[in-house]
Amino acid sequence: MGNVVNYIKWRGDLSFFDSPFNEVDNLALSLLIYNDFFGIVPVKGAGIKISIKDAAEWYFTKHSIDECSRLDFDWILYYMAKTGRFGDLYLSDYVDLNESEKDMMFTAFTVHLPDGTKYVAFRGTTMDIEDWRLDFKISFEEIGAQKAAAEYLKFITEKYSGDIFVGGHSKGGNLAVYSAMNAPDVVRNRIKRIYSNDGPGFAPELLDEKKFDDIKDRITHIVPTFCVVGMLFELNVPHMIVASDGEKILQHSGMTWKVEGDHFIRKRYLSEESIVYNKAIDDWIGNATMEQRQAFTRDIFDAMKAAGAVSIYDISKGGFHDFGTILLSAANSESKTKIVFGKFFGSLWRSIEKIKVVDTIKSLQGLIDIFLIFIGIVFLTIPKEVYMVLGGAIAFVVALWSAVMLLKAGVRDENPFMKRGRMIFHIIIMWFMVFILSNLERIPTWTNVLMAIVFFSLTVASVRYIVKNKATISGKAKFWMILVAVVNLNVGIVSLITPQRLYYGKSMTVGSYLILVGFVRFIIQVLEQSQNSTEHSRYYEDD
Hints:
By secondary structure, this protein is an alpha/beta fold.
């Protein structure tokens, strides 16, 4: 079991005559086009071709494979060039348009297979902000890249004979479907298969149902188990759901899809979280008019540029400051943008509020948080009697526990010295609890001391949590956990120094604080669980 790169390595010695073109070959070629082939692959209309092996030789004189992460597309080209199956395939008719001022970002090339069949590949979305802006425009208008894709496919079919595969990943999948849907009848008849690899569909207001029905039986729509992009304006075709070793949105990368032999590992259903997100987005889009979607797209991407962002990476690197600038700019935008923005976050919150909650509750830290909230409610419910009730209950439970442990120590077969020491310890604990229970007037004071111990324990728990999760915990979560630890320490010291100061206001304050601390700790752990991702090794050489 591996991914598309492992497939290229393992199956690269099989020719297309021995093993016909398949779904994984499609993914490999749709990812290959993400590499920058400007000046390497002959341009559209040049009338010449270059083999993948030769293209790789040129490419790696400018790019170093040593600088690539595991998910970089350079690996696709690197290993294709080393195989007989892919190395002798030819590339031609390269188009790479990056004219954001004209709303045009479009890249395509044609792959020539040994039997004369062509694979027309369209590039998907890069991390460029302007590229994402154009993707969002799919929600309210036909974009220039779609029209360019249709024109490109028509040009290729007029220039070359033979059958055609059309495909792409992400936006490239949308372009593949659009170009086939809008091709002349004679061209559509030559298309064998249309591959949309986690590509979005089309706004219902813009979809020509008749044209779509003509090609829908030839569409292969492949999506990972956590799918958001591929379910935007969901295509009315069967979805091939595939396994992925990525976490959450990282599954959008075709480099994470699991391969076995010459096919993807299938799954029956999307993940529960993916379904939740898709429902939220569907509700949002369904409640927004075309005009609202247009205003939202304009304002939110203008806000990103106002924050100084050029790529999506800039938003994550800029942290809260840049994101805050975006939100502030959106808040000052026109009313219909605010409506769409508000509806989206409202729908998203309603949909994801239960995500990860159950997993967090089951953990030790989650149980501590729930206990803190419960004790806080007790303080608020019976503020005058709480110290008496809580102290008496704790003393009784501890006395009972000590009695049970004393009996167990008595029948335990161990060193006599250890056994005697263990029994004396539990006798002292039990005697002390009985002493507290027999002096009812002192219970509130002792309870205050116990609460001080609880706050000291919370301080230690927060510090341990930070140390244990230092590799994954975010800077913001670490700050809040440290702040909670400092406040707990101070409250514990005050409770220990002034145990006799018992009054209504103090109970209400302690109760409110316990609920707040429990809730903050709980939310931090939910968010941290959601952000944790599986680490992957960097290279493929040891696979």
